[in-house]
């Protein structure tokens, strides 16, 4: 096919999906959730999803705008969701240090995760959050309840599997009786090596229970693990590993916390701005080589392999990838935060943040007034027609074929 992504023309993930997704040699082996993601990306902001027509009240120019797919794996549909989520989280920040702690699973678990993503990912959340809460409650460290926001990522810069959890942790805890705030030592939260050992133990105990309860499935390269002796050897090998936990220095104030949240909370496996070129069935994209000073490099993958890697990171249906623990647990969050603010002498927000209108949000983020006519630059655009989703006739090829 002709080159895409050359000068003056940007390459999008949707372009690759439309060109190769249906014809990929992996298409027949995809699960329904992966098919739905590809269909959503392929039809995002096209006539297939419908939209509306607007007319300028000054010059009469007509503009057509198609609807977004709103799929959480689509790189074009995360900006608004991220900004609205950030508005809610801003009101919950406390005037304390925050730490960034990353829990990473050994790559030996990757094949098992491919057939059991829900089990493997849930165990990652449970083991990490339980580890942090255990250290927080320990009087040798804090002796109270800390607050945690945990965000799942499953990819590396090259789209390979890299299962890890980014945790934003309060630098302190609320005493069990609610009488005082217990601050962490300045610049230090918990000993990383001890965290790693406890996390490994909790995760492997959970994996053993999942095996005993027959919650795991085995296929392909992990079929042998169905045998109890093979699974016991597998656990022993994992237990001998040093599991990686990384704890960054505390953030320098609330603004840096928000910048962190914005970077990690609604990120997808690859964004459109990293795509460089599509030519001769090869996709080229930028990646950062962290082992060589974050140097930006270009990786070339066949379109088939590129889509295979991208689809590794499609989450199970209705899987929650941002979770909260401790002080921020959903049922007690409001009361806990009110108590912490009182103890810290912090003024609570006057009201719950109200959603910012889309036009105002886009103006703030991009500087573009989406309600102003792009032709005459004087009039305002008014919605005049609603466009229903495109209904293809029996003679037209579907935009995305999952047969």
List the helices and strands and how they pair.
Blueprint: H1 13-21, H2 32-43, E1 51-56, E2 62-66, H3 79-90, E3 98-104, H4 110-115, H5 117-137, E4 147-155, E5 161-170, E6 172-174, E7 181-183, H6 192-212, H7 228-240, E8 245-247, H8 254-264, E9 275-279, E10 282-289, E11 295-302, H9 303-311, E12 322-326, H10 333-344, H11 358-366, E13 381-387
Antiparallel strand pairs: 1-2, 1-13, 3-5, 3-8, 4-5, 4-12, 6-7, 9-10, 10-11
Helix pairs in contact: 1-2, 3-8, 5-6
Q: Can you walk me through this structure?
A:
With 403 residues, the chain is α+β, with helices and mostly antiparallel strands. Helices cover 33% and strands 20% of the residues. The chain is built from 11 helices and 13 strands. Strands 8-3-5-4-12 form a 5-stranded antiparallel sheet, sandwiched between helices. Strand 10 and strand 11 form a beta hairpin. Residues 394-398 have low confidence and may be disordered.
What class would the helix/strand composition place it in? Answer: alpha+beta
User: Mind summarizing the main beta sheet?
Assistant: 5 strands, antiparallel
Number of strand elements: 13
Instruction: Round the Cα radius of gyration to an integer and report it.
Output: 24 Å
Mean pLDDT: 89
Low-confidence stretches: 394-398
Number of helices: 11
Strand order across the largest sheet: 8-3-5-4-12
Strand content: 15-25%
Write the H/E string, N to C.
Answer: HHEEHEHHEEEEHHEHEEEHEHHE
Give the N-terminus to C-terminus distance in angstroms.
23 Å
Shape: globular
What share of the residues lie within helices? Answer: 25-40%
